[in-house]
């Protein structure tokens, strides 16, 4: 079965520092991969997605992620973090029926705190 | 453009009372619809999904049920709430097909007391 692991439950970075949030997935075929962000008490906003093609994908708010098949990873990065980036970040993979109206399987999330 | 609305935003209900959370999508037709639950400090768990009117798939056995009476309406219900039903409930929709992206509503906080 498909699964997603976000190894870091909580990360703290200084404002202006670079950021990398880790995501590992388990899936036999080429996965559909997503990163969402959730501010406290809010719904989830899509940051970026990977379906195929270029393994480095750009998203909103200056985020990017790189799909590495050999490592089964889809890590999220940002070169310079802003205080407004403090939130919870979820990595997700589409299940094997995703194209037929399938479902997303989420990781447990990584909470990002930003120090001034 | 497409929008998704869910309500109420917050709800405090006693144990044993009924529940109804409603979600509607605008600007699209025949969407796939989803209900997720997010318990405190945990990830998102898919509860139900629907690919059409009256078609509901349940992912986990539980005290909740879902219905889709209209194309763009998805309702989460319970006849008798349990304390363990407390959490943050998120409705979501997707267009389906290749390249499908799932979009989320703002969520509903349910506290069962």
At a glance:
By secondary structure, chain A is an all-beta fold. Chain A is 0% helix and 50% strand.
Describe this structure in words.
The complex is a heterodimer of chains A (116) and B (113). By secondary structure, chain A is mainly beta. Chain A is built from no helices and twelve strands. Chain A has strands spanning 3-5, 10-14, 19-21, 24-26, 33-38, 44-50, 56-58, 64-68, 73-78, 87-94, 104-106, 110-115. In chain A, the strands form three sheets. In chain A, strands 2, 5, 6, 10, 11 and 12 form a six-stranded mixed β-sheet that branches. A four-stranded antiparallel β-sheet of chain A has the order 3-9-8-7, with no helix packed on it. A two-stranded antiparallel sheet of chain A has the order 1-4. In chain A, a hairpin with a 4-residue loop joins strand 8 (64-68) and strand 9. The mean pLDDT of chain A is 92. With 113 residues, chain B is mainly beta. Chain B has strands at residues 3-7, 10-13, 19-26, 32-38, 44-52, 55-58, 65-70, 73-78, 87-94, 102-104, 108-112. The mean pLDDT of chain B is 91. Classes of the chains: A mainly beta (116), B mainly beta (113). Chains A and B meet through strand 6 and strand 11 of A and strand 5, strand 9 and strand 10 of B.
Number of helices of chain A: 0
Alpha-beta classification of chain B: mainly beta
- State the separation between the terminal residues of chain B, measured CA to CA: 38 Å
Total DSSP E strands of chain B: 11
Q: How far do the termini of chain A sit from each other? A: 41 Å
How many helix segments of chain B?
0
Judged by helices, strands and strand pairing, the structural class of chain A is: mainly beta
Average pLDDT reading of chain B: 91
Instruction: Profile the largest sheet of chain B.
Output: 7 strands, mixed
Low-confidence stretches of chain A: none
Let me know the number of strands of chain A. 12
Assembly state: heterodimer
Beta content of chain B: over 45%
